[in-house]
Amino acid sequence: xxxxxxxxxxxxxxxxxxxxxxxxxxxxxxxxxxxxxxxxxxxxxxxxxxxxxxxxxxxxxxxxxxxxxxxxxxxxxxxxxxxxxxxxxxxxxxxxxxxxxxxxxxxxxxxxxxxxxxxxxxxxxxxxxxxxxxxxxxxxxxxxxxxxxxxxxxxxxxxxxxxxxxxxxxxxxxxxxxxxxxxxxxxxxxxxxxxxxxxxxxxxxxxxxxxxxxxxxxxxxxxxxxxxxxxxxxxxxxxxxxxxxxxxxxxxxxxxxxxxxxxxxxxxxxxxxxxxxxxxxxxxxxxxxxxxxxxxxxxxxxxxxxxxxxxxxxxxxxxxxxxxxxxxxxxxxxxxxxxxxxxxxxxxxxxxxxxxxxxxxxxxxxxxxxxxxxxx
Length: 376
Description:
Layout: E1 3-8, E2 13-18, E3 24-32, H1 38-42, E4 50-54, E5 58-59, E6 79-81, E7 84-85, H2 98-104, E8 109-111, H3 115-125, E9 128-133, H4 139-148, H5 158-161, E10 167-169, E11 192-198, H6 203-211, E12 214-220, H7 225-230, E13 235-238, H8 249-258, E14 264-267, H9 269-277, E15 281-298, E16 303-316, E17 324-330, E18 336-341, E19 346-349, H10 364-374
Parallel strand pairs: 3-4, 4-6, 5-7, 6-8, 11-12, 11-13, 13-14, 14-19
Antiparallel strand pairs: 1-2, 1-9, 2-8, 3-9, 10-12, 15-16, 15-17, 17-18, 18-19
Helix pairs in contact: 8-9
């Protein structure tokens, strides 16, 4: 294996070995606490511009398949960091190794470092920019490069990952316990029409919406509000996506014009853009929430659900002046995870009820969206 270096912007250096593409890349370093689901994580567009550190020590043992990706076009992170990458994989659905997959798409990946030490460092000092290189092995040179990088907070990453043209979606959830791989939904069954703003939407969100009874039209992130209303939707969905929501000025402006016109449901970036559309304060978390084991309290039912999460920013619901009420709360750090309008048919959550990967405790929210549309 080829030697590689990971250097953080604060000067911390990790010696490691490459198992991905032999190249050099800069990204924001975050950690994910999921034990499995690395293919879904790698293809989640919300990780665009970041390095993902997996806390589970061995990754890659079931390979990569053609079905479980959450977006098209291969991996979205700028780099991948693990304790140990499994050289052998075993799964009846797999067709290549994790290493082969990352090399195919030119993504650098490293192993052999103490990921526990790296994660503790990020928890203590916060997420920060880092550089991975198999080309330049001089720590001083690499530190200079990463310090000169302006970071990703001011980059519109949504514009990079959003669809370039409108399309329809009619695929439901995948059943891996069946020989029938056809998951198309009969278009005559789904009557309610939902328009999805694609800020980096995950396929599993679309699958859940489809299974829930929606006919789906996906549109680019910069689609004007007037064009949305011309599609005559029964509801509007705001998707997940990467980066700082404050760089998506057009997103907040378009959503602002749609408030009160149609029922709205937002997830992750969609939740943040909804908040910004209503002039809420949005702030960055120290190291974000990334993983499949975050406990969240649903204040409307009193139940605790284990959730999948992937975000670096949080909406201060109290800054909305009483127009919204808190519906979900993170039990790790007390941050706000969901809100609903006190009068209008609008609600949103910060976490990922669609899983992919993660638990299915929160899929009821898609039914809640359907019921909200039917009642309005």
